Amino acid sequence: MSSEEPLQLIVSSPSGAGKTTLTTRLLELVPGLRFSISHTTRKPRPNEQDGREYHFVDRDSFVKLIRDEAFLEWAEVHGNLYGTARAEIDRSSSARGIIFDVDHQGARQIKSSSPDAVAVFILPPSMVDLERRLRGRRSEDEATITRRFRAALEEIAHYGMFDYVLVNDDLSEATTRLVSIFRAEECRRRRAAGWAERLLAEGRGFGGTQPPSQST
Ligand code: ADP
Ligand code: 5GP
Prior knowledge:
Layout: E1 7-12, H1 19-29, E2 33-35, E3 38-40, E4 54-56, H2 59-67, E5 71-77, E6 80-85, H3 86-91, E7 97-101, H4 104-113, E8 118-123, H5 127-136, H6 142-156, E9 164-167, H7 171-186, H8 189-205
Parallel strand pairs: 1-7, 1-8, 2-7, 3-4, 8-9
Antiparallel strand pairs: 3-6, 5-6
Helix pairs in contact: 1-7
Bound molecules: adenosine-5'-diphosphate (ADP) and guanosine-5'-monophosphate.
Guanosine-5'-monophosphate binds at residues 12, 15, 38, 42, 73, 75, 77-78, 82-84, 101-103, 105-106.
């Protein structure tokens, strides 16, 4: 089934709760989804590639993009700048869905420009697990881990603006729930209405009550 517009799925969480892991799995399991590749001034992690996880740019280039109004939204998060370029939406116009991995500020901005966007907030099972995951990733130094852990409560405090809250305890169970959210949202009447309307138009084309094989 296809809807008219790509479904916009916002995924946010405190750093380390698992949104990159879960969105990667969602992208693998649901064909036709696109990941919105943000711009950031953060340095790439060892496993990251420019143009795949992010467009890595310096601060001057980022500020120029702000001035050029290239961003749908942008925010400062953990001391770095992050933004979603308008071009990302254009690139996804024929996709089944587009996933935005953004913080609560970005989620609010996307929701205000696209009220139909679906926002999912991912929580760790506990703060102890969150710290363990932040450390287990082995991609940040101690100061960065501490900064991100401290920012977690501020991020969690914004859970009220999200449509769904998903606890990432068991990874495969959490993945199933995220896929289920996406699939259920695709079946919302306003998204699926085009399908019913097409059937009605097709039926009217051969007289409405006659099966197609018997219409002349
Ligand atoms: P985020 O993108 O939210 O900052 P990541 O997806 O990078 O978080 O996950 C942080 C760490 O936690 C990674 O090392 C990842 O493998 C691990 N992780 C993610 N989900 C789970 C889970 N359900 N159980 C255990 N570890 C997890
Ligand atoms: P990380 O550095 O761990 O990749 O991301 C740090 C935070 O920045 C996460 O909360 C992530 O969701 C957020 N983020 C990533 N890209 C964007 C973006 O384009 N806009 C906003 N507002 N936040 C983003």
